[in-house]
Amino acid sequence: MTQALQNCRNVEDFRRLAKRRLPAPVFHYIDGAADDEVTYARNTRSFEECDLVPNVLAGVEEIDMSTTVLGQKLAMPVFCSPTALQRLFHHDGERAVARAAAKFGTLCGVSSLSTVSLAEIAALTDGPKMFQFYFHKDRGLNSALMAKAKAAKFDVLTLTVDTITGGNRERDLETGFTAPPRMTPASLASYALHPSWTLNFLLRPKFELVELKDFYSEGTKDPVTVGGYFSSVLDQSMNWRDAEQLRAEWGGPFCLKGVMSVADAEKAVDIGADAIMVSNHGGRQLDGSRAPFDQIAEIADAVGDRIEVILDGGVRRGTHVLKALAAGARACSGGRLYLYALAAAGQPGVETALANIRAEIERDMKLMGVTSVSALNRDMLRYR
């Protein structure tokens, strides 16, 4: 494992290792997206349409890559976006990610579909934490989630707004992926060929959606696809008034995840949100939608002086982070950025992934001739 981890120098290396360690249905859940996966591919490819213009002789022996996001001082301008079902990828799940993020002084996002309780995560680390909120039909569940996030003293509440129905994730349909996993004749061989993962799943504490199990059997007792969960139990009547009321009830730093248009960014400002995550859910919802990086400049120009703008999705390299910041983002976040590493090697994997991108950001800032992330600006970009 140590040698394999040492050979993981970038996100694609972790992806290959994760593919070897996970049963096919679980790997393709991480790796897949909606429909033809055009948007998924575009999320990263969009960075290739923009070039960096470096400066030299700038005295870059000491650099500062820290930034402040939603009132939290981060040691680097990238953080772990909230993602669901983490104990399916490694038995430590959210525990590993929370510890690793705290070690690197960055924000850890935790999903409503977490497989470790908010209370336990809070007890593990005093690092900055974001709770990602899904707006359910069951108002009692919504109130319970809010109360648990407050009790666990999470720093930020983030409402996901782009899951009004489930995306068409055809890889999940093909592999039969569900949570919890349902072992079918078609998938049984893949689970059998990955005995380490299978034994961990069967012999360790039972997999469950910890904060939802008392309200829904789906996802804990009854297998369900994530898209099916979104379509059946999330409230499709959710609107801007609901988001504003949620912000008021929370009373602390509040963020909307899944904003892609200037018009919606303006509405986020109007309801008093502190930040928006420009995100298309990793290409897993509306295929054919724009990439976050393609939208950052116009959204930042419109509202960047009134609300924090975070780029979420497609980030694979330190140069991607620098391009996003130069275009107007306050910080970047990603899911696959660390999920492949979690699947490959647990907490050491996530730490290595964060160390890799931190080293890239530091090196690339020096090569760009900037000593702080605030020095990155639009003059340093050229679009093809």
Describe the protein in words.
With 384 residues, the protein is α/β, with parallel strands linked by helices. The chain has a single domain, classed as Aldolase class I (TIM Barrel, Alpha-Beta Barrel). 43% of the residues lie in helices and 12% in strands. It is built from 16 helices and twelve strands. The strands form three sheets. The chain has an eight-stranded parallel sheet. A two-stranded antiparallel ribbon has the order 1-12. Strands 2-3 form a two-stranded antiparallel ribbon. Helix 6 (118-124) links the parallel strand 5 (108-110) and strand 6 (129-133). The protein is globular. The relative contact order is 0.21. The model has no long low-confidence stretch (mean pLDDT 96).
Estimate what percentage of residues fall within beta strands: 5-15%
Question: Which ranges are low-confidence, i.e. pLDDT below 50, for 5 or more consecutive residues?
Answer: none
Number of domains: 1
Rg to the nearest angstrom?
20 Å
Write down the overall geometry: globular
The secondary-structure element order is: HHHHEEEEHEHEHEHHHHHEHEHEHEHE
The side-by-side strand order for the widest beta sheet comes to 4-11-10-9-8-7-6-5
According to CATH, the homologous superfamily is Aldolase class I
CATH topology: TIM Barrel
Question: Considering DSSP H and I runs of 4 or more, what fraction of the residues is helical?
Answer: 40-55%
* Mean of all residue-level pLDDT scores: 96
- At CATH's second level, what is the architecture? Alpha-Beta Barrel
The total of beta strands comes to 12
**What is the terminal separation in angstroms?**
41 Å
What CATH first level would be assigned? Answer: Alpha Beta
Helix/strand class: alpha/beta
Report the oligomer: single chain
Q: Please tally the helical runs, counting DSSP H or I stretches of 4 or more residues.
A: 16
